[in-house]
Amino acid sequence: MKRILVPTDFSKHAEYALRVAAQIAKANNSEIMLLHMLELPHQGSDAIGSGSAIPEIMFFKNKAIERLENLMDSDFLEGIEVSEIIQFEKAFEGILAVSKKNKVDFIVMGSHGASGFQELFIGSNTEKVVRFSDVPVLVIKNETPDFNASKFVFASDFSDEIKAPFAKLVALANTFNSHLDLVMINTPNSFKPTHVAESIMSEFVKGFNLTNYATHIYNDVNVEKGILNFANAIDANLIGMCTHGRTGFSHFFNGSISEDLVNHAVRPVVTFKI
Fold this sequence. Notes:
38% helix, alpha/beta
Protein backbone atom coordinates (compact mmCIF):
# COMPACT_ATOMS: atom_id res chain seq x y z
CA MET A 1 0.00 0.00 0.00
CA LYS A 2 2.07 2.88 -1.32
CA ARG A 3 -0.39 5.76 -1.60
CA ILE A 4 -3.46 6.60 0.51
CA LEU A 5 -5.89 9.32 -0.55
CA VAL A 6 -7.76 11.19 2.20
CA PRO A 7 -10.39 13.70 1.04
CA THR A 8 -11.06 16.36 3.64
CA ASP A 9 -13.59 19.11 4.25
CA PHE A 10 -11.82 19.95 7.54
CA SER A 11 -14.67 18.48 9.60
CA LYS A 12 -14.02 16.38 12.71
CA HIS A 13 -15.13 13.25 10.84
CA ALA A 14 -12.62 13.96 8.08
CA GLU A 15 -9.97 14.29 10.79
CA TYR A 16 -11.01 10.92 12.24
CA ALA A 17 -10.38 9.42 8.78
CA LEU A 18 -7.02 11.16 8.47
CA ARG A 19 -5.91 9.89 11.87
CA VAL A 20 -6.76 6.32 10.83
CA ALA A 21 -4.98 6.83 7.50
CA ALA A 22 -1.94 8.03 9.44
CA GLN A 23 -1.91 4.86 11.52
CA ILE A 24 -2.14 2.72 8.37
CA ALA A 25 0.54 4.79 6.62
CA LYS A 26 2.99 4.46 9.51
CA ALA A 27 2.50 0.70 9.64
CA ASN A 28 3.04 0.30 5.89
CA ASN A 29 5.45 3.15 5.06
CA SER A 30 2.78 4.71 2.85
CA GLU A 31 2.37 8.22 1.48
CA ILE A 32 -0.78 10.22 2.27
CA MET A 33 -2.37 12.54 -0.27
CA LEU A 34 -4.66 15.12 1.32
CA LEU A 35 -7.36 16.32 -1.07
CA HIS A 36 -9.73 19.25 -0.68
CA MET A 37 -12.37 19.85 -3.31
CA LEU A 38 -13.48 23.39 -4.16
CA GLU A 39 -16.66 23.23 -6.18
CA LEU A 40 -17.02 26.28 -8.38
CA PRO A 41 -20.08 28.51 -7.97
CA HIS A 42 -23.05 27.91 -10.26
CA GLN A 43 -22.06 28.80 -13.81
CA GLY A 44 -18.51 28.98 -12.48
CA SER A 45 -16.87 28.57 -15.87
CA ASP A 46 -18.73 31.59 -17.23
CA ALA A 47 -17.77 33.55 -14.15
CA ILE A 48 -14.13 32.67 -14.58
CA GLY A 49 -14.33 33.66 -18.21
CA SER A 50 -15.61 37.09 -17.26
CA GLY A 51 -13.17 37.42 -14.39
CA SER A 52 -15.88 38.53 -11.96
CA ALA A 53 -15.53 35.51 -9.67
CA ILE A 54 -11.74 35.22 -9.65
CA PRO A 55 -11.16 37.21 -6.41
CA GLU A 56 -13.73 35.10 -4.55
CA ILE A 57 -12.30 31.85 -5.93
CA MET A 58 -8.76 32.85 -5.03
CA PHE A 59 -9.87 33.78 -1.52
CA PHE A 60 -11.36 30.33 -0.91
CA LYS A 61 -8.37 28.63 -2.53
CA ASN A 62 -5.91 30.50 -0.33
CA LYS A 63 -7.92 29.72 2.80
CA ALA A 64 -8.00 26.06 1.80
CA ILE A 65 -4.21 26.03 1.28
CA GLU A 66 -3.74 27.60 4.71
CA ARG A 67 -5.98 25.02 6.40
CA LEU A 68 -4.32 22.14 4.55
CA GLU A 69 -0.87 23.30 5.57
CA ASN A 70 -1.98 23.61 9.20
CA LEU A 71 -3.44 20.11 9.00
CA MET A 72 -0.21 18.75 7.54
CA ASP A 73 1.64 20.09 10.60
CA SER A 74 -0.42 17.88 12.92
CA ASP A 75 1.63 15.81 15.34
CA PHE A 76 -0.02 12.56 14.27
CA LEU A 77 1.32 13.02 10.72
CA GLU A 78 4.93 13.33 11.88
CA GLY A 79 7.24 11.00 9.96
CA ILE A 80 4.76 10.45 7.11
CA GLU A 81 5.22 11.79 3.59
CA VAL A 82 2.16 13.98 3.05
CA SER A 83 1.22 15.96 -0.06
CA GLU A 84 -1.71 18.28 -0.66
CA ILE A 85 -4.04 18.76 -3.59
CA ILE A 86 -6.77 21.33 -4.14
CA GLN A 87 -9.09 20.51 -7.00
CA PHE A 88 -11.76 22.63 -8.67
CA GLU A 89 -14.29 19.97 -9.54
CA LYS A 90 -17.42 18.26 -8.30
CA ALA A 91 -16.47 16.38 -5.18
CA PHE A 92 -16.93 12.74 -6.06
CA GLU A 93 -15.75 13.19 -9.66
CA GLY A 94 -12.64 14.95 -8.45
CA ILE A 95 -11.85 12.29 -5.86
CA LEU A 96 -12.12 9.53 -8.45
CA ALA A 97 -10.06 11.49 -10.98
CA VAL A 98 -7.29 12.25 -8.48
CA SER A 99 -7.29 8.62 -7.36
CA LYS A 100 -6.77 7.34 -10.90
CA LYS A 101 -4.28 10.01 -11.96
CA ASN A 102 -2.06 9.42 -8.93
CA LYS A 103 -2.40 5.62 -8.87
CA VAL A 104 -3.83 5.63 -5.37
CA ASP A 105 -4.03 2.24 -3.62
CA PHE A 106 -6.54 3.09 -0.91
CA ILE A 107 -9.07 5.82 -0.04
CA VAL A 108 -10.00 6.68 3.54
CA MET A 109 -13.06 8.89 4.08
CA GLY A 110 -14.96 10.21 7.08
CA SER A 111 -18.69 9.97 7.64
CA HIS A 112 -21.25 10.72 10.31
CA GLY A 113 -22.23 7.42 11.92
CA ALA A 114 -25.87 6.40 12.15
CA SER A 115 -27.02 9.75 10.76
CA GLY A 116 -25.84 8.64 7.34
CA PHE A 117 -23.70 10.20 4.64
CA GLN A 118 -24.18 13.84 5.65
CA GLU A 119 -20.45 14.25 6.11
CA LEU A 120 -17.81 15.13 3.82
CA PHE A 121 -19.10 16.78 0.63
CA ILE A 122 -22.80 16.63 1.47
CA GLY A 123 -25.30 13.93 0.68
CA SER A 124 -24.66 11.34 -1.97
CA ASN A 125 -21.06 12.21 -2.92
CA THR A 126 -19.44 9.80 -0.48
CA GLU A 127 -21.88 7.12 -1.56
CA LYS A 128 -20.83 7.72 -5.17
CA VAL A 129 -17.14 7.44 -4.32
CA VAL A 130 -17.82 4.16 -2.54
CA ARG A 131 -19.86 2.94 -5.48
CA PHE A 132 -17.52 3.86 -8.31
CA SER A 133 -14.00 3.75 -6.87
CA ASP A 134 -11.76 1.13 -8.46
CA VAL A 135 -9.67 0.96 -5.28
CA PRO A 136 -10.90 -0.03 -1.82
CA VAL A 137 -12.61 2.70 0.22
CA LEU A 138 -12.47 2.69 4.01
CA VAL A 139 -15.28 4.66 5.69
CA ILE A 140 -14.57 5.90 9.22
CA LYS A 141 -17.42 7.20 11.37
CA ASN A 142 -15.95 7.57 14.83
CA GLU A 143 -12.73 8.63 16.47
CA THR A 144 -10.44 5.58 16.35
CA PRO A 145 -7.25 6.19 18.37
CA ASP A 146 -6.09 2.61 17.84
CA PHE A 147 -7.26 1.32 14.45
CA ASN A 148 -7.29 -2.45 14.53
CA ALA A 149 -8.50 -4.86 11.84
CA SER A 150 -7.59 -8.10 13.60
CA LYS A 151 -11.20 -9.34 13.24
CA PHE A 152 -12.27 -8.66 9.67
CA VAL A 153 -15.79 -9.73 8.62
CA PHE A 154 -16.59 -10.28 4.97
CA ALA A 155 -20.19 -11.13 4.03
CA SER A 156 -21.06 -12.42 0.58
CA ASP A 157 -22.92 -15.02 -1.44
CA PHE A 158 -19.45 -16.20 -2.60
CA SER A 159 -20.40 -16.29 -6.25
CA ASP A 160 -17.85 -16.19 -9.07
CA GLU A 161 -18.26 -12.42 -9.62
CA ILE A 162 -16.90 -11.82 -6.13
CA LYS A 163 -13.56 -13.50 -6.84
CA ALA A 164 -11.73 -10.47 -8.28
CA PRO A 165 -12.63 -8.06 -5.46
CA PHE A 166 -12.09 -10.82 -2.91
CA ALA A 167 -8.47 -11.10 -4.06
CA LYS A 168 -8.07 -7.40 -3.14
CA LEU A 169 -9.72 -8.06 0.20
CA VAL A 170 -7.31 -10.91 0.94
CA ALA A 171 -4.36 -8.65 0.13
CA LEU A 172 -5.74 -5.99 2.48
CA ALA A 173 -6.36 -8.56 5.21
CA ASN A 174 -2.74 -9.67 4.90
CA THR A 175 -1.60 -6.06 5.16
CA PHE A 176 -3.62 -5.65 8.35
CA ASN A 177 -2.67 -9.11 9.72
CA SER A 178 -6.38 -9.82 9.99
CA HIS A 179 -8.28 -12.94 10.86
CA LEU A 180 -10.96 -13.19 8.16
CA ASP A 181 -14.44 -14.21 9.24
CA LEU A 182 -16.28 -15.13 6.05
CA VAL A 183 -20.02 -15.20 6.53
CA MET A 184 -23.01 -16.13 4.40
CA ILE A 185 -26.25 -14.58 5.66
CA ASN A 186 -29.29 -16.84 5.41
CA THR A 187 -32.61 -15.01 5.18
CA PRO A 188 -36.20 -16.25 4.83
CA ASN A 189 -36.31 -14.94 1.27
CA SER A 190 -33.00 -16.50 0.28
CA PHE A 191 -32.52 -19.59 2.37
CA LYS A 192 -29.87 -22.23 1.75
CA PRO A 193 -29.57 -25.48 3.70
CA THR A 194 -26.41 -25.61 5.80
CA HIS A 195 -24.76 -28.27 3.68
CA VAL A 196 -25.36 -26.23 0.50
CA ALA A 197 -24.00 -23.01 2.02
CA GLU A 198 -20.97 -24.83 3.42
CA SER A 199 -20.24 -26.39 0.04
CA ILE A 200 -20.44 -23.03 -1.75
CA MET A 201 -18.05 -21.39 0.70
CA SER A 202 -15.66 -24.34 0.71
CA GLU A 203 -15.38 -24.33 -3.09
CA PHE A 204 -14.95 -20.55 -3.16
CA VAL A 205 -12.00 -20.40 -0.76
CA LYS A 206 -10.15 -23.18 -2.58
CA GLY A 207 -9.09 -20.62 -5.19
CA PHE A 208 -7.22 -18.50 -2.63
CA ASN A 209 -4.23 -19.00 -0.40
CA LEU A 210 -6.02 -18.48 2.90
CA THR A 211 -4.72 -19.63 6.26
CA ASN A 212 -6.06 -17.25 8.92
CA TYR A 213 -9.81 -17.49 8.36
CA ALA A 214 -13.06 -19.12 9.41
CA THR A 215 -16.40 -19.60 7.62
CA HIS A 216 -19.81 -18.98 9.15
CA ILE A 217 -23.48 -19.24 8.28
CA TYR A 218 -25.71 -16.73 10.06
CA ASN A 219 -29.51 -16.63 10.03
CA ASP A 220 -31.39 -13.36 10.26
CA VAL A 221 -34.46 -11.57 8.94
CA ASN A 222 -32.49 -9.71 6.26
CA VAL A 223 -28.92 -9.36 5.06
CA GLU A 224 -28.26 -5.93 6.56
CA LYS A 225 -29.29 -6.96 10.05
CA GLY A 226 -27.50 -10.26 9.65
CA ILE A 227 -24.16 -8.60 8.88
CA LEU A 228 -24.49 -6.08 11.71
CA ASN A 229 -25.64 -8.67 14.23
CA PHE A 230 -22.90 -11.11 13.24
CA ALA A 231 -20.24 -8.39 13.47
CA ASN A 232 -21.56 -7.48 16.91
CA ALA A 233 -21.62 -11.13 18.00
CA ILE A 234 -17.93 -11.67 17.26
CA ASP A 235 -16.91 -8.09 18.16
CA ALA A 236 -15.44 -7.44 14.71
CA ASN A 237 -13.13 -4.50 14.07
CA LEU A 238 -13.89 -4.09 10.38
CA ILE A 239 -16.68 -5.03 7.96
CA GLY A 240 -15.98 -5.64 4.27
CA MET A 241 -18.44 -5.74 1.40
CA CYS A 242 -18.54 -5.57 -2.38
CA THR A 243 -20.30 -2.92 -4.45
CA HIS A 244 -21.65 -2.78 -7.97
CA GLY A 245 -20.71 0.34 -9.89
CA ARG A 246 -24.12 0.72 -11.48
CA THR A 247 -26.48 -0.58 -8.86
CA GLY A 248 -24.83 0.55 -5.65
CA PHE A 249 -24.18 -1.86 -2.83
CA SER A 250 -24.29 -5.43 -4.04
CA HIS A 251 -26.82 -7.54 -2.28
CA PHE A 252 -25.30 -10.91 -2.07
CA PHE A 253 -28.60 -12.60 -2.87
CA ASN A 254 -30.01 -11.37 -6.18
CA GLY A 255 -30.76 -7.80 -5.23
CA SER A 256 -28.95 -4.78 -3.93
CA ILE A 257 -27.94 -4.29 -0.33
CA SER A 258 -29.07 -1.03 1.18
CA GLU A 259 -26.73 1.85 1.85
CA ASP A 260 -28.25 1.65 5.33
CA LEU A 261 -25.66 -0.98 6.18
CA VAL A 262 -22.84 1.53 5.88
CA ASN A 263 -24.91 4.26 7.51
CA HIS A 264 -25.88 2.13 10.49
CA ALA A 265 -22.65 0.24 11.08
CA VAL A 266 -20.75 1.71 14.00
CA ARG A 267 -17.62 -0.14 12.93
CA PRO A 268 -15.39 0.93 10.03
CA VAL A 269 -16.53 -0.43 6.69
CA VAL A 270 -14.30 -1.11 3.66
CA THR A 271 -15.77 -1.59 0.21
CA PHE A 272 -14.48 -3.28 -2.93
CA LYS A 273 -15.92 -2.68 -6.38
CA ILE A 274 -17.03 -5.72 -8.37
